[in-house]
Amino acid sequence: MNSTEYFIYLLACHLNSVDPNGEKRMDWQQIYNLAEKNKLTAIIAYEIKRLPADCRPGGTIGAWFNESYENTVHSFRPNLQSLAGFINALTEAGIPHVLYKGVVLRNYYPFPELRVGIDTDVVLRPADYINAIEALKKRGFIEKSIESNSATLQFEKDVFELHTELESINIQSKIYFATPFDDISDSSGYTYKLKPVYHLLYLVSHIAHHLQTGHASIKMIMDIDALIRRYPDININDFLILSDNIKIGKTAETLLAFSKKIFNTPVVLNFTFEDEDTLSLFNDFIYAFSTGKVFGSSDENEENNGKRNTLDFVKNIFAKISRPKKQENELSYYQIQLLEELGLKEKEE
Prior knowledge:
Blueprint: H1 3-16, H2 28-37, H3 41-49, H4 59-92, E1 97-100, H5 102-105, E2 120-123, H6 129-138, E3 142-146, E4 150-155, E5 158-163, H7 171-176, E6 185-188, E7 191-194, H8 196-213, H9 218-230, H10 236-245, H11 249-263, H12 279-291, H13 300-317, H14 330-341
Parallel strand pairs: 1-7, 2-5
Antiparallel strand pairs: 1-2, 3-4, 4-5, 6-7
Helix pairs in contact: 1-2, 1-3, 3-4, 8-9, 8-10, 9-11, 10-11, 12-13
């Protein structure tokens, strides 16, 4: 395996709770760089601890991994205390709030304390926005920035982002996400969280945005996997219908198929990456999520190198590959539809 393959392999072991196999010749500097870029250093460090002793990185790089692990674990309890203060301040002020993304999703990981987030996101009703900011400031939260529909506050080292609406990728998703306090969420007191199928829909919409603009992270795919594992009863057919309704059906299907391919996500789909002819599309996803570049933007040399690496990746990690027959032009047609859906290619008349 090369470094990118092994990095993803270790993440898959973490999500599947299986012991990783060691590789004695590995570029741990590159793996560390990938882990830092994707905010996954603590998870990789945990998996390193489970490797045979002679397969672990030593020296400075080994110390970096250990330091990241210790710092991440030690910061978890203070973060929980900050979160409790945040929720209590809003609750005492009688302000409903929706928690979503990392602050919720980390609880679905094997070890929540290792799933690092940059900040805590919350959605408020526009009418409660200013009152919420004032309530938090009275509890010691420091205002860092404030705009018409979003604000950033900080408590000690923890950052909280307040929004007046869920992020949307198009007008259709804006309509779906316009009622986070109603039919698409559940509540406990004043604290709401999105229902699983709508949280999955939001994740896919959010990832689609980053495939368009850049900065997609492999952690986003891990979030898909963790959510589906936590809620195995999610009706995937209903989810795909919802995705079609907001005009990202192909994106949703391929992202779930990608998650299933690299992490063995327990989901049944009509589209898979098990056919050799899907290698090009699979490579586009690997490139986008490992580099943070816009989907399908790799130049010719990077793309060709990536395809060779991806072919090895498929051979090395996945022992069983089925090869169902497909129509000759199905892949190219599917790729075109996906790029058109993401607005990365003009629709053909």
